[in-house]
Amino acid sequence: MTVMKVYRSRKSGEKIIETYDRLLSLWNCEIKERDIETKYGITHVIECGDEALEPLVLFHGVGDDSALMWIFNAPYLSQHYHVFAIDTMGGPGKSRPNSNYNKEFDDILWIDEVLGGIGIDRSRFAGVSMGGYLVQAYSLKRPERVIHAISIAWAVPVEKHLSNGDKLKALTATFLPEALFPTKKNIYGLIRKLSGKNYRVFTENSDIMEHYGWLIKGFNNGSMRNHKIMTFTTEEADSIRDKVTYLVGNDDPFQKFGGRQALIDNNMNTEFYDGAGHGLNHEFADEINKRIIEEFMK
Question: What does the pLDDT average to over 111-118?
Answer without folding.
Answer: 98
